[in-house]
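Possible regression after last week's pipeline update?

I re-ran a chain I had predicted before the update to compare outputs. Posting the input and the new output here so someone can diff against the archived version. Not blocking, just want to make sure nothing changed silently.
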Amino acid sequence: MTYRVGVIGTGIMGKNAVHVWRRHPEVEVVAICSRTLENLRAVARELKVQNYYTDHRELLDKEQVDIVHINTPDSAHCEISLDALQAGKHVLVEKPMTVNLAEADEIVRAVKNTGLKYQVSFNHRWLSVYHKVYSDIQAGKLGQCLLGYAKKNNPIKVPTEWIPWAAETTPAWFLSSHDIDLVRWWVGSDGAEVYATGIKKVLVERGIDTYDAIQAQVRFKNGFFATFESCWIYANTSPYTPDSYMEIIGSKGHVFLDRKAEAIEMATQEAYSYPRTFLNYKVFDRWVGALPACMYSFIDAIKEDREPYVTANDGRAVTAILDAVHRSLASGKPEYVN
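New output (post-update):
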């Protein structure tokens, strides 16, 4: 069987998605969609995609797709998800599932009612180092998980140059969502209470009304607690995108992961860097890494008629914690996770 895919959103992740899907022997990319026609035409020429649309509903009406892959700005995820599910399509959505908890609940209900497959692309779960941590925690090697720390930071070019919709999101939604998903997966518990602080200065001065940095302390239902730090105003000379570090301390041991320690170090006349190869990298004629593994796993879930490894409920749980983070930022007080 050939699975026909429609890719919604043609930014960095959307274009990557087209390349990766084309290397799967059972997948055909039949159409792409983006709101801006001029940019859409250019991307269609670049990727050699014949069918393209500025409205996802038109794509759903005119193309016989089996899967809708959503790579749009976060705020558009819910509407497209619901429309695709209603049209009988399986859905793969870029993280976070949505930035609104009521919308997340709508999606969970729609997935349950339709019986279709829905996967949130928390692709870090497919990185071997993170999966090793999960396996060791499940095997009891750390004992009871007690506390954790996670930071993910980007250079300022990300909110100012790479994503034109930065004012619609925050570094916590954009960066910490990955870390929150990993930690709740590792420790097997959902969030209970959050206290968060943040600062708005550098980006606001550049006309982008969003946080420069956010730090959130999260207490989980099983007693574990963790600090999640996100910042995206590092200097553009920063050698990594992103800087990523995680630590879990248990009653019998601890583990820490520093992405730089797993990376290539490269120095040229222009810059010193840690080139990214973990998520998506072309080796000869194939794309390898966590992103292809995550995407291809979704095909397996459909073929085998099993639950995806990251479900709508997982996506909802991360949105619930981040919803509490942003309520705490607004109130200046601890907030319970709904």
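Follow-up from reviewer: compared with the archived run. The mean pLDDT is 93. Marking as no regression found.
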